[in-house]
Amino acid sequence: MITVKNLSRHYQMGPTIVKALDDVSFTIEGGEFVAIVGPSGSGKSTLMNILGCLDSPTLGSYVLAGEEVSHLKPNQLAEIRNRRIGFVFQSFNLLPRETALENVELPLIYQGVPLKERKKIALAMLERVGLEGREKHIPSELSGGQRQRVAIARALAASPSILLADEPTGALDTKTGVEIMELFHALHKEGSTIILVTHDPGIARQAERVIQIQDGRILKDLPSKEWAA
Amino acid sequence: MKAGALVENIRMSVRSIASNKVRSFLTALGVMIGTGAVIAMLALGAGAQKSVEGSLQALGSNLLIVYSGQPRGGALIRRSTTNIIPTITDADIEAIRRLIPNLITSLAPESSANGQAKFGSTNVNVTIVGTGVDYPLIRNVRPVTGSFFTPADLDGKKTVVVLGAQVYQDLFQNAGDPLGQKVRLNGLSYRVIGVLERKGNSTTDSSVFVPITTYKRYVSGADKYALVNVQAASVEVMREAQSAIEKELLRLHRLPTMDSADFYIANQLDLLNTLQGVAGTFTLLLGGIAAISLIVGGIGIMNIMLVSVTERTREIGIRMALGAKTGDIIAQFMTEAIILSVGGGLIGIGIGYGTSWAFSKFGGIASEVNLLAVILSFGFSVLIGLFFGGYPAYHASRLDPIQALRYE
Lengths: 229, 408
Ligand SMILES: Nc1ncnc2c1ncn2[C@@H]1O[C@H](COP(=O)(O)OP(=O)(O)OP(=O)(O)O)[C@@H](O)[C@H]1O
Ligand SMILES: [Mg+2]
Prior knowledge:
Chain A is α/β, with parallel strands linked by helices. Chain A contains eight helices and ten strands. In chain A, β7 (about 160-165), α6 (about 175-190) and β8 (about 195) form a beta-alpha-beta unit. Chain B has two domains: about 5-55 and about 275-405, no CATH class; about 65-235, no CATH class.
């Protein structure tokens, strides 16, 4: 499903080069539930952005569903983001003036799905994340947990092959975080591939596999049981 | 782009415009004023052109005036004709008359002198004009009371007079029936047979008209005429009539070319062209100034769109993260700019119509909204939306999704 090989992402900061990612390689199969952990500034978001085709690596290869995507043009990347990837952000990133339903429709709009069908799918997704009856609300009328549910519904709308979540519970209280994690578990059971960044070892343990990175390099890549031990 | 995407873009743009109504209004205001100004100014120009044509028609139609002497400026009607040294002879008149009916329909010789008109104890300075019976027809001036003199008056050298409107007002204070009254011109008594309509030009209104034969007998002994009013048979033959008259008179006066001629012909066409040229320049000038304001309006749109792109950087980032392509972002912001400028343009058309109407109604200025001007300025405002919305839209589409998502 995902194969990265010798992946690096460098930032030129004046005279020095910051190696946000430094020679990272791994493979993630379809249906896996992977947690990425590491201290702040270790390169987790950088890795997620590349996996999510929001960014391109400086060096190395990234093969997604059999296609090398590391050198694609912006519009080709947009196409992949639109059809293959569902991204959930720490800060939700909902459009503040659009309703929950309209937010969920967004990826479908860019796919050119006709209005009626789009509404139907979006409604089903909102129902899936437990938000039936809230489709007319705008984000400011929803709680943090509800907003993140809208964001997850939006990530699911285009039926992507991978769900990427960068600290999806980071902005939520513990109880709401647990509810969101339950949703991810349910999605995983239904067959979704999930890659999730977290600070919280307790959340990392809930995944099947943990990739721990430090200073842009992979420190450990273990099944969660072994990692926790 | 798919048709559905266009509908989607319009929906998003309307939402974004509606969510910031005051700003959207101010943004479109520049285009409104610009479009309105273009339409109103062109209407004013068209009105000026119309009224120029109208006042020229009032002088008479297809008018040629054969003047004695050397050309004096470009005026068709000379303000004062009393100081012309007459050079046009009876033989000239006969030669011109022979051009009837192919080239001309009628003619009326004219000579004039300063004089005094007296009625009762009232004295007025007037221009005494001697002319022929066709003068009212050629110069488009009708008696409102009584009638102009007849061929019989002319043949009999009758002492009859037709008063200009101002002369009538001054002598009779607009009171009483002037017909049959006796008015003294330079001491000799004339019977009033008519009063002319008011033309609004002092030359006609402050003149009195007597048969040319009477004029030659009692007012001036000269047997030449100062000028001849000629009506050409049609607009098409005006030039031909002019050159035919020139040829005849040059021959009769034994002169080689018009350069040395002791007469010249003023042609209504020339004047019409000159005045239309002036009115055209006027229109162009006004329209040009208004068009500049339209461009300034466009710059206003660009300014606000750039601010809007900056403010909505995060929104752009989110849309890109969800799969919006360069073209989608460009289309979204372009649609917004075009809706603003088209909306502004439509309101501007209303403003233009209103202003033009107000000019005519309250300013007494002729103005006429031209459909072409409406279409043109509206099209122009759409182009302005495209052009000035283009850069901000392009700018938005070039944002880096990650940078845009991080933007606070
Ligand atoms: N646009 C950028 N320009 C320069 N350096 C950057 C840029 N983005 C990230 N970095 C650097 O790359 C390194 C990794 O950043 P990254 O955001 O991936 O960390 P992270 O693991 O997600 O941290 P956190 O847990 O705090 O979110 C950091 O040192 C950061 O300063
Ligand atoms: Mg991070």
